[in-house]
Amino acid sequence: MKKIGKLILASIVLVMVNPLKGNSEEKNYLIANAEKNNSAVQIFRYYGNDRFETSTILSNLLSIKGSEHIFLVNGENFADALFSGPLASVSNSPILLTKKEELPKVVENKIAEMKVKMVTIVGGLSSVSIDVENKVKNMGIVVDRISGSDRFETAKKLSYARARVLGSKSSEKIAYASGVNFADALSATPFIYYDDVVNILPQNNKPIVEYVPYKNESNKGNTLYIFGGINSVPQNVNSEYMTTRFSGADRYATSVEIAKECEKKLNNKINTVFIASGEDFPDALSVGPIVARYGSVVLLTEKNTLNTGVARFITERQIDRINIIGGESTISKNVVNEILELHKIKK
Fold first, then answer.
1. Dihedrals φ, ψ of 165, to 5°?
2. Global pTM?
3. Total Cβ atoms within 10 A of residue 17
4. Which of residues 341 and 108 earns the better pLDDT score?
5. Residue 266 and residue 252: Cα distance in Å, rounded?
6. What gap in Å lies between CA 96 and CA 257, rounded to an integer?
7. What are the residue boundaries of the structural domains of the chain, listed by start?
8. How do residues 219-247 score in pLDDT, each as one tens digit?
9. Strands of 272-277's sheet in order across
10. Nearest to residue 85, comparing CAs of 77, 96, 98, 76?
11. Of 82, 161, 242, 339, whose CB count within 10 A is highest?
12. pLDDT, average across residues 138-157
């Protein structure tokens, strides 16, 4: 873990920029130009032939020159990988997806292309097999694995690793999301990054203090941010904390509420948004560190319909770039058309 800490610290980037801006590759993903109040709005779609290739394409948004360190997570089951985003965000490292028993060739090629020196596998052998681990090792790459006995313990270890990287000495602000449903936790990734809070994924009915990296003498006056409604995280989870809950009528509305809070952390300056599926997890998981790098937010959508709250969030702000994550089998052309209808189409 010392090796991973040193490598992460060496790669932390605080400046939020677009590494592809002005690069010839970017035009390959531009699908429309729109006009809003006489201001240009560009719409991009980032996708591959499948979720695994999409994760490799998204990695270019962090750096077209490659990355010395990447996170490798199961792209078929979100359980262990759910809270890998906050740790990957502080390290400015991409999240690439793998199958449990096999490293997809497109991911293997990307790792080689980026000249990766270290891979952090998230999850136990039931998530990412020893065969995948050995495949990476045989590429001459150092492999580190963060895992626990279940998703909750894995999330706890991810939180501890992040606290060590940041040099945190207290757990005064804690982020709590459901470990059963992926949507709220993934929407919360940029907020956790911007507000430098401790992220936890506790089992129901277990004390929160068991999951925080640093134990305080008293939790009174500390802040607990809960992401999701009472169906996701029960009411009165812990009465010792000053609790703030971010939730909406559904996961889409909740993503909007979280985005509004992110906006406050960014001094009300958001000109780029990322739109990911709220029905399947891979794309929203892969894009987490990228959203943080852009100083942006992630908004969730259904496959065929843009949530009215999401639409309102876009139209009420000076958004000049909209990034759709995933192909048309994930987010349909109809959603793109609805976005275009919010503006005057200019092709």
1. -65, -45
2. 0.89
3. 10
4. 108
5. 21
6. 28
7. 2-11+28-345
8. 566 888 999 998 888 876 666 778 899 99
9. 297-301, 272-277, 321-325, 39-46, 30-36, 344-345
10. 96
11. 82
12. 94
